[in-house]
Model the fold of this input.
Amino acid sequence: MGIITNIKSLQGMGVHADRGARSPSLQFRRYNLVYGFNGSGKSTLSRLFASLEAGGPHPKLPENGTFEVALDDGSAFGCPTNPTGLEQRLLVFNSDYIEQNLQWAAGRAEPVFYIGADQAEAANELTRVEGEIIQAEMKKEAAAAIERAAERTFANFKRELAKSVASRLHLGSRKYEAPALAKDYETWKDDDRPALTDEELKAAEDTRRLDEPMPRVEPILFDKTTIETAYRFIVDACGQSLATVALDEVQQYPDMLLWLKHGHEYHEAHEISDCLLCGNAISAERRALLAAALDDRVDQFVARLTKTAERLSDLIEMSGVSAHWTDWGS
Done:
């Protein structure tokens, strides 16, 4: 911050002539000497600067008087408008200061001053700390400005997002604004369900767009006893295995069962003595082992599984019909 270079305006300040925008600059420098007779306005001038030191109009200035000073950096301060900002930059020592702080009759001073090397060091430390305070206040104000800007940006974001959501909700005359959006986010912040896909969102939006409600969904009617029967049969079927098949290959690779069975039947039907896969001869012992292991029980087991799968599909699709669910054991 620079130095005071001019009194831009002055109105109603006793013996001083009024000043305005057309008044020539006083061109103050770093050091200025002001002198004059008693009553020429020296004390009034000092009280202008004392007002800026105090951050408010001096009590001994004319009640309706106004003034404004300019600094070399282009800033301006004055009373009654913009009186604060120079409190830490101005010190005025005049008759008012003496009257207020040095009370000779009482034999005391306010404030108390100490003289000595220690106090000089303390004064330097005070100056340093005051400088840090000023820097901290500047940083605080800058951070507050950033916070205010972020809050404005966030508020605009919520408004725009609420408008977007409202346009997809198709609420008619009802409103959906930023407060409702914030409340929903707070309510759902712990919801761990998966997010809807674009297709699911579009389907939901299409439903919201309908003028009439969707058709009534009729309750599914079923016979409870048939479900229990089906459940018991499924448990029984799932508990069965091909343990009766006496082939190590099937026990180790159960998915190859039907492949072995169909291959064996094909070789037998076409009287092929060599394996079509590996080219080796199939011995009589191997043929007998395959015939014993892959008998009709395998076909019956597979057929039962197939029939069970078909009936399960029917059970899922059917509602209110139980006539076909009573013959699970057949």
About this structure: The longest helix spans residues 117-169. DSSP finds ten helices and five strands in the chain.
